[in-house]
Amino acid sequence: MLKVQPLLSIIITCYNYEMYISECIRSVLSQDYDNLEIIVVDDGSTDRSWDRIQEFGDQITAVRTENRGQLKTSLNGLSLSHGDFVYFLDADDVLGEGTLAEIAPYLRPDVSKIQFMLLPIDKDGKPIGNAFPTLQPSDDSEPLIRSIRERGYYNTPPTSGNIYRRDVYEGLGEMTYERGIDGVSYLLAPFVGKVISIPKTLGKYRIHNANQSSFSVLTSKRMKGYVDRFMGRLYHLAELVQARCASTATVEVRSDYAYVMELNTMSLVVDGKRPGVGQIAAYIGALMRENTGKKRFALCLFAVALFVLPNGMAQQLAAIRIDPSRSSQMRARLKQALSVSR
Fold first, then answer.
1. What are the helix and strand counts (H, E) for the chain?
2. How far apart are CA 4 and CA 141, in angstroms?
3. How far apart are CA 24 and CA 18, in angstroms?
4. Is the pLDDT confidence value at 3 over 50?
5. Which of 174, 222, 301, 303 has its CA 20 to 30 A from that of 36?
6. Most distant CA pair in the chain: distance in Å?
7. Any residues with CB less than 8 A from the CB of 325 and at least 6 apart, and which?
8. Which tens digit of pLDDT belongs to each residue from 106-126?
9. CB 318 within 8 Å of CB 271
10. CA angle in degrees (0–180, nearest 5) for 40-85-35
11. Sequence-separated (6 or more) residues with CB below 8 Å from residue 69
């Protein structure tokens, strides 16, 4: 007797991505997985995205709405789906060849999330860096839970690198603090099942002018927004864990996470102020507590640099920390300077 594959819902949300949406949909249609539904929601695009989507006819379920933003559009797609597992794929990203066959064995009731690595590509589809994040093969959620309790997060791919068991998204309630679909869900997943980490590059993550724009201007208001979302997720997580998990599973939300201290410190730098000695000391203390080895050293050096460098240079450093793609320009300048000095 053949075992029926779990139904997998792939939900693609699109806003003004006429250049990429066709490739994205084709990358899903080419997969070797039978029990699949593809839902594409156009979030009120003003370009020809909807025309491109309609070209696929009854191969997909296509819906067009007024522009409501990524979170509401994703939730709309979720409400239209029926899958045992759900996968939110950004319309400018690409699912790798054979990906669904690779993850199929892990679509089990005890698995709450499957995560895999993504290869960054440019607008033309050319690789522009190494696959990320670095993952080790694992089905153990305990290290991830420890990381959440210690740091407030664990290393996870962007949206297109995660597949969730459906119930992870059930009963989440209001997420007014959030902009994306998988903020609190990635944190909840380790508490309600096994998180499978696959150390393979199974998708492509596109970096282009449109999605880089969110990093284009560094402001203290933006830093505050990051902090508010980070803390909002953790407070929401604490409520969900209390309601849905065993009494021994708890999350204590703190105010001294290194990530929060880093953003607050960079916010001062962006406003042209120098962080105080006490603030830097507390920030370094959090880094020492939450990190080890070379990473601890590098982050502590970054903290010291924010304190000792002239404000203009400290702002540039903060900009690179928020948007690592800017470091390529700095590396090029440094290489040129070193070659001249020789």
1. 13, 8
2. 27
3. 10
4. yes
5. 174
6. 72
7. 207, 212, 215
8. 999 999 999 999 999 999 999
9. no
10. 75
11. 43, 179
Quickly list DSSP for 76-94: HHHHH---SEEEEEETTSE
pLDDT for res 340: 40
Both tokens assigned to 114? 């499957």
pLDDT band at 208 (very low <50, low <70, confident <90, very high): confident
Q: What is the pLDDT of residues 30-42, one digit of tens each?
A: 999 999 999 999 9
Residue matched to tokens 């059930």? 170
Give me the residue label for tokens 């240079």: 313
CA angle at 237 for the pair 235 and 243, rounded to the nearest 5°: 110
Chain Cα centroid distance, residue 24: 18
Specify the higher pLDDT residue, 154 or 219.
154
Neighbours of 173 (CB within 10 A): 10
Question: Under a CB-based contact definition with an 8 Å cutoff, are residues 63 and 76 in contact?
Answer: yes
Instruction: Give the span between the Cα atoms of 85 and 188, in whole angstroms.
Output: 15
Q: What is the 3-state secondary structure (H, E, C) of 191-248?
A: HHCEEEEEEEEEEEEECCHHHHHHHCCCCHHHHHHHHHHHHHHHHHHHHHHHHHCCCC
> Locate tokens 């991830």: which residue?
144
Q: Which residues of 281-312 are buried (b: 16+ CB within 10 A; e: fewer)?
A: ebbbebbeebbeeeeeeebbebbeebbeeeee
d(CA 11, CA 42) in angstroms, rounded, equals: 11
Nearest to 323 by CA among 203, 244, 225, 214: 214
- How far is the C-alpha of 204 from the C-alpha of 118, rounded, in Å? 5
Please tell me the predicted confidence (pLDDT) of residue 331.
Answer: 41
Q: pTM value? A: 0.90
